[in-house]
Design a protein that fits this description.
By secondary structure, this protein is α+β, with helices and mostly antiparallel strands. It contains 11 helices and 12 strands. About 30% of the residues lie in helices and about 20% in strands. Bound molecules: flavin-adenine dinucleotide (FAD).
Length: about 325
């Protein structure tokens, strides 16, 4: 690991100020929450910052507050705290389950909600120091000619990574918002708009600027008569990212879907909203046939790579299963 200096900041303002200073001095710096993901990248020298701005010492950034319209979740809240929070379990069980599906208990105890949403891709070419891939400044996405078993089937190109977070599909299905502090002050935007597809920029996964920090996630309660479901398929039952995951939230009225949100993980470089399937479902009774049709529609634009054709049927079936469970 390259030598670096760790700085424990005491406020968001201090963190933003330091990041701005390092940027103007042309020094490389990164923020860390739990460090569970970023330190892995440093160990293999994929990330080589001069400074780590450690947010963990900032007081009051780890909280889950229930308000009339939903929850506010502090950026430093750990995945375990989210998983175990009684109010979240009561009102948004599938969000708690999504948090509990991530990584291992040790990582969930250290890893934060913000770190989970900002984690870098778990593509083996990206995480290997020996491959100067497109996302690291090189000219090739090695998955195209190489091993593409776990890569994108939707929205890929020129980079074919998949979005790794379990929380993100569940939060996007819930229409969550993300609050960001930076040199220009604070802003709040739909979480869906936070993620950057490779066609816009293939070197980054989100819109954060070099001195920006995620401070909070806001989760509205689903509308009355809504039900949500999260399901993840992975190769091993522990420590493993999703091969395919699906989050669905369906609001029912008179036996039909008034509104449905369907979001897939593990299949595209960003959490993938199946907008055409959502449109198809509006006003329909969700049964085996409509749920299966929605799965077909959700994957109609899939362009599997040479080694991951299997993901298409898997994703179709998961969409069907998630919708039947949510209806
Ligand atoms: C072996 C392993 C298996 C895993 N499996 C899964 C899985 O199955 N599902 C899943 O969802 N995740 C998985 N993860 C990822 C895990 O959830 C993350 O490591 C963890 O949530 C990251 O949180 P952290 O606070 O430790 O982030 P850090 O390691 O501190 O940071 C991660 C990234 O987020 C950025 N960051 C952190 N906090 C902020 C902030 N407040 N504002 C802006 N940027 C920030 C950092 O700069 C860095 O780029 C796995 C990780 C490992 C190591």
């Amino acid at each position: 690991m390259k030598n670096f200096e760790n700085i424990d900041v005491k406020s968001v303002r201090e963190a933003v100020g330091l990041l701005q200073k390092f940027q103007s001095e042309k020094k490389s710096a990164a923020v860390v929450g739990g460090g569970s993901e970023y330190l892995q990248l440093m160990k293999v020298r994929v990330a080589t910052p001069d400074y780590l701005v450690n947010l963990k010492a900032i007081p009051g950034m780890s909280y889950i507050k229930e308000e009339s319209g939903g929850f506010r979740i502090g950026a430093l809240t750990t995945l375990s705290e989210l998983e175990e929070n009684p109010a979240v379990r009561q009102r948004l069980l599938f969000l708690s389950q999504a948090a509990g599906e991530a990584a291992s208990p040790q990582i969930r105890n250290a890893g934060t909600v913000a770190g989970n949403l900002c984690q870098r891709p778990f593509c083996w070419y990206f995480r290997s120091a020996g491959h100067n891939c497109l996302r690291k400044g090189g000219e090739v996405c090695f998955s195209v000619a190489g091993d593409s078993r776990y890569h994108a089937i939707l929205g890929g190109g020129p980079s074919h990574i998949v979005h790794p977070s379990d929380l993100a599909p569940a939060l996007v299905a819930l229409d969550a918002k993300i609050k960001i502090a930076g040199p220009g002050g604070e802003k709040t935007l739909a979480l869906e708009k936070f993620f950057v597809p490779p066609q816009v920029n293939y070197r980054r996964e989100n819109i954060l600027g070099p001195a920006d920090i995620v401070t909070e996630i806001q989760v509205p309660l689903p509308k009355a008569a809504s039900k949500g479901f999260y399901h993840k398929v992975r190769e091993r039952q522990a420590w493993d990212h999703a091969i395919v995951s699906v989050a669905a939230v369906v609001q029912s009225s008179g036996g039909a879907a008034r509104e449905a949100r369907v979001v897939l993980g593990g299949v595209a470089p960003v959490p993938w909203r199946a907008a055409k399937a959502e449109e198809f479902l509006r006003g329909k009774k969700i049964d085996e046939a409509t749920a299966a049709k929605a799965g077909e529609i959700a994957l109609a634009e899939a362009k599997p790579m040479k080694d991951n054709v299997y993901k298409v049927d898997l994703a179709k079936n998961l969409v069907q299963r998630a919708l039947l469970a949510s209806a």
